[in-house]
Amino acid sequence: MPPKGWRKDAQGNYPTTSYVKEQENITIHDLLFPKSVVAGLAKEAGNSVINSDDSNEEKKTMMINKDASLALQRSATVFVNHLLLFARELSREQDRKSCNVDDVLNALDQIGYSGFKSIIREKLDDYQSIQHLRKKKKKQQEVSTENETNKENNEDNDIPMEDANNQTPKESAIEASESADVDNPENVETQEAKKLKLDNDINDK
């Protein structure tokens, strides 16, 4: 059942929720920017101005009261939406559905704020450079972590391992040498000759 108070249209159907939302009027309260963000930007800009010509080491801080913060919030929302209206018109003239940076900068000329173009371009370049440095730093950290992991794996592989008889490589080499002497007939004959010579020396004495 539809909510109470809904009426059928000319075709005898109840309107859907999306249809009702589209028919509702959008006010400025639905588009307002966060007050904390607007106030923070205003304080940052104000502090940079009042401290630019101050020779004292102590920095001053600008305070914004409640009414001024509300006025900044509403005026910023109206200005951005007014600028976006002209930027969207420029994008539609070029058969594009989205606005780009050039559309916004050209819209500033149309609304009479050409002086802001250089400032906006400078701030945009700073923002893009910061984002590029963040991505580069993140990539370097990933490469460094991968190299450390590979180094640890290589160190683990270089540790001497014992054979099936629980012998170290050194013990295995000694055993192999002894077995080689026993298996080689020449080595056996040499050992017997040394033993025979030793017996003869004892008998002569």
Automatic annotation (TrEMBL):
Q: Which CDD domains match?
A: HFD_POLE3_DPB4
**Gene Ontology biological-process annotations:** error-prone translesion synthesis; heterochromatin formation; leading strand elongation; regulation of DNA double-strand break processing
Which regions are flagged for Basic and acidic residues bias?
Answer: 191-205
Q: Localized where?
A: Nucleus
Listed InterPro entries:
DNA_Pol-Epsilon_Subunit, Histone-fold
Key words, A-Z? DNA replication, Nucleus
Report which superkingdom the organism of origin falls in: Eukaryota
The protein depicted here goes by the name DNA polymerase epsilon subunit D
Natural source organism: Vanderwaltozyma polyspora (strain ATCC 22028 / DSM 70294 / BCRC 21397 / CBS 2163 / NBRC 10782 / NRRL Y-8283 / UCD 57-17) (Kluyveromyces polysporus)
